[in-house]
Amino acid sequence: MAMAATVSTARLTAASSFSPLRLRLPSAALPLKRRRLHAATTALLKTLEFKTLEQGQPETLDYRVFFLESGGKKVSPWHDVPLSLGDGVFNFIVEIPKESSAKMEIATDEAYTPIKQDTKKGKLRYYPYNINWNYGLLPQTWEDPSLANNDVDGALGDNDPVDVVEIGDRKGKIGEILKVKPLAALAMIDEGELDWKIVAISLDDPRAALVDDVSDVEKHFPGTLTAIRDWFRDYKIPDGKPANQFGLGNKAVSKDYALKVIKETNESWGKLMKRSIPAGELSLM
Question: Exactly one of 63, 112, 126, 127 is catalytic; which is it?
Fold first, then answer.
């Protein structure tokens, strides 16, 4: 099976005191490889570099995108890429580039949690139409399926990392790590499970300086929040399924609320990694 490393790399700067959202696990509780990465993220202004490695051919059942540390060893994009970079900036990993339809996602039950194309009954999954924004996850977050959210009718988490909808102009690449700032949040309820959508923008986008909260998105990206909500509400309808629902008044809520979601799901991820919560079939390596 052919394997080829991409030429692109991601350099991340981690600070020792960037945010309470960056959960620091006791180094003794971590595997040796994880301890090295943990030490790197707690070193002041330490630069981390990740590469991606493709295995198999795109749009096949065997296709995987692995992440490598600078030394060439496999790491987990979910567990090993730092969440917070400080000053309200977070790492976002692109799973599905904008204007594409292949349903790519982190394989949460496979070693090193590579990105793969989702399947159903042995067949590759596609959205019925292109998604119009870069879509992916916040590393080091987890929506706990045993934790009821009282703000959203007691809905339980969907057992996945938190999703991000990045509204910038540039089309990302599968496995690309973008520095983003959250702007809003949508509380999607998918078949009874809470599936947060954090609306964010890449710091590299020309309009990033214009937007800092949900009201700014309405002003500088008019109609975008409604379009995101409607896209995720309706995308299952062509397959004969009911529309998804949304909590919190069926509308996008503030940046502060989005940061609260990120903090809480980062804490849930920390409990998962410390084995305080059963992992089930989830891979923690």
Answer: 127
